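Example record

One chain of 367 residues, shown exactly as stored in the release files.
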Amino acid sequence: MKEIGILSMQKIKNCGSFMQSYALKKMLEQQGVEKVYFINICPGVQLPGFVPDPPVSFLHKVTNAVIDRDVINKIKRYLFYKFKSNRFCNKYFPMLGLDDICPDHLDMAVIGSDEVFNCCQPSSWGFTTQLYGNIPQAKKVISYAASFGHTTYEQIQNFGIAEEIGKWLKTQTKISVRDDNSFDIVKKLIQQEPQIHLDPALIYDFSKEINQCKELNIKNYILIYAYPNRINEEEMKEIVSFARKNGKRLVSLINYYPWCDNSIIPSSPFKVLKWFQGADYVVTDTFHGTIFSVITKRKFCSLIRHTNIQKMTSLLHTLSLTEQGATNPQEIEKILQQEIHYDLVQSVIEQKRKESYKYLNDAINNQ
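Predicted structure tokens for this chain:
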């Protein structure tokens, strides 16, 4: 009997975090693991400059909206966010089994995937050694496709936490990361090369979950999958212009953009993939939005930003899709019109899938 705990960012109200958590759980179950739990993150210390902002009241948001003369859109955005949050907590999270109580003794803990190593970002948990291997309830600890995100080795050195992170990384039986930046940091910290694996959302086959979703009632659209307020004016104009030229509706998924024709919060996280599958084109600025585009074999454009450049460029390079990344708005139209050779992409994923399952099987069976 094997009981394994996943230490991830499973409680973040984000479809990418949900999908990678769900996929990793399914991958472990496919290896014969009897029970998979999720381990809650134990808060550590807040690094200077990365303390999260305090919650803002609805009244304060409305007051600011009136001052900005954008009251209707800001109230819509707020209500959209609240509805999304409630749906995640009440409907999405139970699908992961987050209500199950994790036992005090586990055969193994898996840290990952997502940006679990990214300590230089605002978060409720801050810098905690638990995310690097300090998990006393587990007999052994590994990581899978973990990422430092946009945290750099220089930042880790400047905050004086390099030695502590390195100490706990060394306690892991196996270390796996998902991008070049994370590979380089681990190598510098412990003088060992970690393995590189694709995010679980790319490794696990979601075909069954997608096929079980009902058909959509909207056709002929461009899907916008981006963080709130991240698409700037110039990008918006290019996207809207392309949509008008091609007679397409604009559908925003999960977040509210007033310039889109529809804003949707799907009834299940798997319906998110159904919306990707039904799109004629996708514009995204997220790592998992890029993955969802690849899963559903869409024509897509990934917007490269300073906050996602390490992980996004590494992902696109691995999949031989570098040309799908846009560093300025003028590239969007050209990129969306490019043909993508998904047969080549799929061959890469199939090879990486074999490597991932072997890695997990070896870890579970002490090889």
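Notes: The chain has a mean pLDDT of 92.
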